[in-house]
Design a protein that fits this description.
The structure holds two protein chains of two kinds.
Chain A lengths: L4 E5 L3 H13 L3 E5 L2 H10 L4 E5 L7 H11 L8 E4 L1 H6 L9 H4 L4 E3 L5 H14 L1
Chain B lengths: L9 H28 L7 H25 L8 H25 L11 H11 L2 H24 L19 H90 L8 H32 L6 E4 H18 L3 E6 L5 E4 L1 H17 L6 E8 L3 E8 L20 H6 L7 H11 L4 E5 L5 E8 L7
Parallel strand pairs in B: 2-4
Antiparallel strand pairs in B: 1-3, 4-5, 5-7, 6-7
Classes of the chains: A alpha/beta, B alpha+beta.
Chain lengths: 131, 461
C-alpha cells in the first residue's frame, strides 16, 4: 500500500470525489477542498505531501494565484503541485512545460481534465518519489 | 479634352485660353514677318505688330487677373471666371476681325481661323453662348467685308497674294459670307453635340464611380459587422464548450471509478453498459476538445512563431502514426528532403496538423494499405504531402472537406466517429502560417493531402 497524504483543491465535487476514491483505493490519505481559502485551511491543519490543484475555480485565475502563493511561501514551497488543465487552458494545446515556463507557473506537473485513473496514480507516485 | 469638361474647374479652362493666346500672338508676328519678308506680300506690318503688342499686354493682364483671383490656392467664383471666358472669346473675335481688316479683309484666307474660336467656344461655353459667339463672328467679319466692299472703310490690298479688287465683287462677298456663316454654325452644332455626349458620358462615369465607392463602403461595413458577429459566436462557442467539457470530465472521472471496480465489483452486464456510456463520453470529449481547440485558435490573434525543427515535428508525427498503422497492417513510408530542418512557426500547431492528416490517412485506409509522407524543399516554402491507398474523396465532397463539421459520405460510412473538425483545424493552422492546404484523389486509389508552409512566417493572421 502506497503512503502519503494528498490534498485535492477543486470546485467540482464530483471530480474531487472520483479522484478521492481512486487515490484512497491505492492507500493514500485524501482530503478535499472546494476553493483556495478552504485549501489553505486544510494545508495549515494537516500538511499534505502532494497538492492536486484545479486551475479554474470560482475565477479563471484562482488556481494560478494559489500556486504562486504556495511556491513563494517558505513553509509550503516544497510541496509538489499537480495542476489540472493548466497549459491546455491557456493555449488550447497539450504539451509539457518547457524550462522557461516553470518561472511562469511554478508547478511540478500539468494534466488535462479528465485524468485517467492510472495516469493520476502514476503522476502522484512520481511526485511523491521526487520529494 | 476630357480634362476640360465638367470635372475640371473653370479656372483651368480660362488658363487654357490664355495659353493658346500666347501661341496665337507669336504666330501672328511670325506670319506677318514671313509674309512680308519671304513671300513679298505687301502688308501694313506696323499695324499688325502693334496689334500683336496690344494682344500681348492684354494677355498679361488676363494672366495676372486669373492669378490674383486664385492666389493662395483659393477657388475663384465660377460666375466671375465664366464671364471672363465669355469676354475673352468675344474679344478674340474682335481682335481677329481687326487683324483680318489690316491684312486684306475677305481676301485673307486666315478668315478660317474663326473656326478655331468656334470650337473653343463650343468646348468651354454653353450651347446658347456658342451660337451667340458664332453670330458675333459672322456679324464682325461680315461688317469688315461689307464696309470694305462698300468703300466705307479702307481696304488693305494683299499685293502679291490676292487678285486685285476681288473684295468689291458683290457675288463673291455675299457667297463667301454665306459659306462662312454656314461653316461657323455647323462647327458649333457639331462640336457642341460631341462635347455634350462626352459630358454625359463623363457624368455617367462619375455617377458609376460614386455608386461603386458607396457600395464598397457598405461592403466594408457589412464585412466588419460580420467579423464582429463571428467573434461573438466564437466566444459563445468557447464558453459553452468549456462548460460542457467540465461536465463531461466529471462524468468520465466518475465512470472511471465505477468501471475500475474501485467501489466494489459490478456485474458483467452492468460493466458492459457503463462501458458503453464511458466510450461515448470519450468520443464526446474528443469532439468538444477539438471544437475548443479550433475556436480558441480562431479567437487568438497571433501565432507564437519561433524557429523549430520541422524534421523533428514530421518524425514525431510519423512515430505516433506508426503505432496506429501497425494495428491495421498499414505500411507507412516517408521521404523528407535532406535540406529540411528549421523553419519558423508554432511547432505544436504544425505537429498536430501533420498528425491529424496522417491519422486521417490511416483511419480511412483499409487493412494492408499504404500511407506515405513526403516533404519537399521548395526554396522559400516547404511542401508536405500525405498520400494513402484509402477510400478517397467523393467528387461532391472535394470542395467541402475543409469546412467545419463536414464529413464526406464514405468517411461517415467507414468510421462512424469523427469530429469533422480535424481538417478545419489543419486549414486554420496552415493559413495562419501563410501556407495553403488542399486535397485531391489519386488517379488509381486513395487520396493525397498537401500543404505548404513558408520557411519564415511573419504573418499574424
Amino acid at each position: 500500500m502506497a503512503q502519503g497524504r494528498i490534498l485535492i483543491i477543486d470546485d467540482d465535487p464530483d471530480i474531487t470525489e472520483a479522484m478521492t476514491v481512486v487515490l484512497e483505493n491505492r492507500g493514500y490519505e485524501v482530503a478535499g477542498a472546494a476553493d483556495g481559502s478552504e485549501g489553505m485551511e486544510q494545508l495549515k491543519a494537516n500538511r499534505p505531501d502532494v497538492i492536486i490543484l484545479d486551475v479554474m475555480m470560482r475565477t479563471r485565475q484562482e488556481g494560478f494565484e494559489l500556486s504562486r502563493e504556495l511556491k513563494t511561501n517558505p513553509d509550503y514551497k516544497d510541496i509538489p503541485i499537480l495542476m489540472l488543465t493548466a497549459v491546455k487552458e491557456k493555449t488550447g494545446l497539450d504539451f509539457k512545460p518547457t524550462a522557461g515556463d516553470e518561472s511562469w507557473l511554478p508547478v511540478e506537473e500539468f494534466l488535462d481534465k479528465p485524468v485517467k485513473p492510472d495516469v493520476l496514480l502514476e503522476k502522484v507516485q512520481s511526485l511523491l518519489q521526487k520529494r | 479634352m476630357e480634362g476640360l469638361l465638367e470635372s475640371t474647374s473653370l479656372i483651368r479652362r480660362a488658363y487654357w485660353l490664355v495659353g493658346l493666346r500666347w501661341v496665337a500672338i507669336v504666330s501672328l508676328a511670325v506670319a506677318t514677318f514671313v509674309a512680308q519678308r519671304f513671300l513679298h506680300v505687301h502688308l501694313p506690318a506696323t499695324s499688325l505688330y502693334a496689334i500683336a503688342g496690344i494682344l500681348l499686354a492684354y494677355n498679361f493682364v488676363l494672366y495676372d487677373l486669373l492669378r490674383y483671383w486664385t492666389r493662395g490656392g483659393k477657388e475663384a467664383s465660377p460666375g466671375r471666371v465664366g464671364s471672363i471666358i465669355t469676354f475673352q472669346i468675344s474679344a478674340d473675335l474682335l481682335i481677329l476681325s481687326t487683324i483680318l481688316h489690316f491684312s486684306g479683309g475677305i481676301e485673307n484666307p486666315f478668315a478660317f481661323f474663326f473656326v478655331f474660336h468656334m470650337i473653343i467656344a463650343s468646348i468651354l461655353c454653353s450651347k446658347l453662348q456658342s451660337y451667340l459667339q458664332a453670330t458675333l463672328a459672322v456679324f464682325l467679319f461680315g461688317a469688315v467685308a461689307s464696309l470694305e466692299a462698300l468703300g466705307w472703310m479702307h481696304h488693305y490690298d494683299l499685293v502679291g497674294f490676292a487678285g486685285h479688287g476681288l473684295y468689291t465683287y458683290p457675288v463673291f462677298v455675299f457667297g463667301f459670307l454665306f459659306v462662312f456663316a454656314v461653316t461657323l454654325y455647323l462647327v458649333v452644332y457639331m462640336t457642341t453635340s460631341i462635347v455634350a455626349q462626352l459630358r454625359l458620358r463623363q457624368e455617367g462615369y462619375e455617377r458609376a464611380n460614386a455608386l461603386l465607392q458607396e457600395r464598397q463602403r457598405t461592403c466594408e461595413l457589412a464585412n466588419s459587422q460580420l467579423q464582429e458577429k463571428d467573434k461573438l459566436k466564437n466566444e459563445y462557442v468557447l464558453r459553452v464548450t468549456h462548460d460542457i467539457k467540465g461536465h463531461l470530465a466529471a462524468i468520465q472521472s466518475t465512470l472511471d471509478v465505477v468501471l475500475g471496480g474501485m467501489l466494489g465489483p459490478i456485474s458483467e452486464k452492468n460493466k458492459d453498459f457503463v462501458g458503453r456510456a464511458h466510450r461515448r463520453t470519450i468520443k464526446c470529449l474528443e469532439f468538444i476538445s477539438a471544437l475548443l481547440k479550433l475556436t480558441r485558435m480562431k479567437l487568438t490573434g497571433r501565432l507564437a512563431a519561433e524557429p523549430f525543427s520541422l524534421r523533428d515535428c514530421l518524425l514525431n508525427a510519423l512515430t505516433l502514426t506508426q503505432n496506429r498503422a501497425r494495428d491495421k497492417a498499414i505500411t507507412v513510408t516517408h521521404r523528407i528532403d535532406a535540406s529540411i530542418e528549421t523553419i519558423t512557426g508554432e511547432a505544436v500547431l504544425i505537429e498536430e496538423t501533420i498528425t491529424n492528416i496522417l491519422f486521417n490517412a490511416v483511419k480511412y485506409t483499409p487493412e494492408g494499405g499504404k500511407v506515405s509522407l513526403e516533404a519537399k524543399d521548395e526554396g522559400h516554402t516547404v511542401r508536405v504531402t500525405v498520400s494513402d491507398s484509402g477510400i478517397g474523396i467523393p467528387e461532391e465532397a472535394v470542395l467541402h472537406i475543409f469546412e467545419e463539421f463536414y464529413r464526406a459520405e464514405n468517411a461517415r460510412a467507414a468510421e462512424r466517429d469523427g469530429t469533422g473538425l480535424g481538417l478545419a483545424f489543419a486549414k486554420q493552422v496552415v493559413e495562419r502560417h501563410g501556407g495553403r492546404i488542399w486535397g485531391k484523389n489519386n488517379p488509381t486509389d486513395g487520396s493525397t493531402f498537401s500543404f505548404t508552409l513558408p520557411k519564415a512566417t511573419s504573418r499574424g493572421q
